[in-house]
Amino acid sequence: MGLGLDVRLSRLFSHTSGNLFGIAVDHFVGYGNVREGGLSNLPEAVARCVSAGPDTMTMTPGTAKSCWPPHVGKASLIVQASYWTPDDRIRDRLATPADAVRLGADALAVAIGVRGNTEGDFIRWLSDSVRDAAPYELPVVAHIYPRDYSDGVRIVFTPEEIAYAVRVGIETGVDVIKVGYPGDEAAFAEIIAGCPVPVVMAGGPKEPTLVGALEQMAGGLRAGARGAVVGRNIWGEQNLEHAARAYAAVLHDGVSPNEAVARA
Fold it and tell me: Which site among 61, 71, 202, 220 is 20 to 30 Å from 107 CA-CA?
């Protein structure tokens, strides 16, 4: 690890709590009807998310190029390198580490699916990105999603599959691993204890209530997670600024979910 990597990682985890609070607007082909929902107006969504004060913002290179200039310096930029759907209808790469550096990013995110026939391709994407990022001392943040094919295809969050996802991140040499909360605090603590790099949580599917989503974050923090990168559970809320402040209160200040919602 060189100085450049140290500097960029320190920007991601710059809050005094040591925890990362990130917002992701990188959903692209998995978003559905782009005329509806929290990302229907992408420039506005980026501006509203940034106004909530996250440590990092993750977005595709095109979004960064067109929507990020007014917000430079307000948060660390993470460029998403890949786009895919869980059923592999679409899967490819949008950006290289060199592209991310040209855009001024502090890190490259690589989202992959594991399990299934295409798992080897995805793991190669990740290992190639780690190798190609090394000359730039650019951190790689792996977003790893285990899939289950027993009834169609779906993303799963069992402790066994989350442990496998984390192991893929370790073995490919990434700098930060983002995975879903497995719903079992003790199991997650065991997984994190065996991981030599920071683990942050995915926001996961849209939760029925904000308190419910925050309870998962609080459980993950107790297990040793170093924060979270959240998408639809923030921009999918009607009052996303309120939701983001509540997340920050849990992730940065360590308050209870109920208190976070009340005071946000």
Answer: 220
